[in-house]
Design goal:
Strand content: under 5%
Distance between the termini: 72 Å
Largest sheet: none
Number of strands: 0
Radius of gyration: 31 Å
Number of helices: 2
Oligomer: single chain
Length: about 100
């Protein structure tokens, strides 16, 4: 089982437990609904924060890969140019002889 599924199952269990605890607590309906709403908002805020963190990490990694690919492309371009120049100079030297 993947760790993502385990974490998702754990979070779902915690949420279900918290909801059951609130629903079975001796409080008025209005108070209970407010508690549920507050808990839901807290979970949504936490989820948004985690998503933002994930998005930031992914963006940083994408930028790093783009830079590495660009550097690699520049090196390949230089190598091809050097190779072509060497070939041309050998060709010209052969023509002179």
């Amino acid at each position: 089982m993947s760790s993502g599924k385990v974490v998702l199952g754990l979070l779902a269990g915690v949420a279900a437990g918290a909801l059951a605890g609130i629903l079975f607590a001796p409080a008025k309906g209005k108070k209970t609904r407010k508690r549920i709403l507050r808990k839901g908002e807290d979970y949504v805020d936490a989820l948004k924060d985690k998503f933002d963190e994930l998005l930031e990490v992914v963006s940083e990694k994408v930028e790093k890969v783009k830079e590495e690919v660009s550097d690699f492309a520049d090196k390949v371009k230089e190598d091809v140019t050097d190779f072509a120049e060497k070939k041309m100079s050998k060709s010209q030297a052969a023509e002179k002889n």
